Amino acid sequence: MKHPKRFPKGLLAATRYFADPDVCVDFVSAMRWPDGPVCPHCDGRRVSYLSSRRIFKCMAKDCHKQFSVKTGSVFEDSPIPLDKWLTAVWLVVNCKNGVSSYEIMRHAEVTQKSAWFMLHRIRLALRDRNWRKMDGDRDSPMQN
């Protein structure tokens, strides 16, 4: 999993870029774990990737749990696919005058209620400068 050499410059390019689920997983994985995937359950570094299901499996002796790039992040517990999440994140960070939930609704093709939910999670993650799941533990450091 590697960082792309060039990030999308416009909304249309971002939408096309994130249309492939494998690209989304690679992108989020590279952002979360620049030195390779880490098990969120035991912090183990020996993990294998199950490409047919787009999940990781910890190979630590006492763990063997499965996890995805969404596990432990702001994307967790959301049925919204990563392509829509990443399009919304791209909109929020690239619109200098801000973005409304209605704009996210139109561009990510989700309901306004989902767009509002996504926007609030993204804003909170940006404010706190971390993408960990917001579970009330605000003092925990960002997990790379």
SSE topology:
Blueprint: H1 11-17, H2 21-32, E1 47-50, E2 55-58, E3 66-67, H3 82-94, H4 101-108, H5 112-128
Antiparallel strand pairs: 1-2, 2-3
Helix pairs in contact: 3-5, 4-5
What features would you describe in this structure?
A hairpin with a 7-residue loop joins strand 2 and strand 3. With 144 residues, the chain is mostly helical. A 3-stranded antiparallel β-sheet has the order 1-2-3, with no helix packed on it. The model is unreliable at 134-144 (pLDDT under 50). The chain is elongated and about 50 Å long. 28% of the residues are buried. The chain is 40% helix and 7% strand.
Looking at this protein, list some descriptive labels:
disordered C terminus, elongated, single chain, three-stranded antiparallel sheet, 144 residues, 3 strands
Instruction: Give the C-alpha Rg.
Output: 15 Å
**Sequence of strands across the biggest β-sheet:** 1-2-3
Q: What fraction, in percent, of the residue positions are helical? A: 25-40%
Mean pLDDT: 84
Backbone shape: elongated
Low-pLDDT stretches: 134-144
Number of helices: 5
Report the count of strand segments.
3
Q: What percentage of amino acids are in beta strands? A: 5-15%
Biggest beta-sheet profile: 3 strands, antiparallel
Straight-line N-to-C gap: 14 Å
Structural class by sheet pairing and helices: mainly alpha
H/E series: HHEEEHHH
Question: Can I get a quick summary?
Answer:
The chain is mainly alpha-helical and 144 residues long. It contains five helices and three strands. The two termini are 14 Å apart.
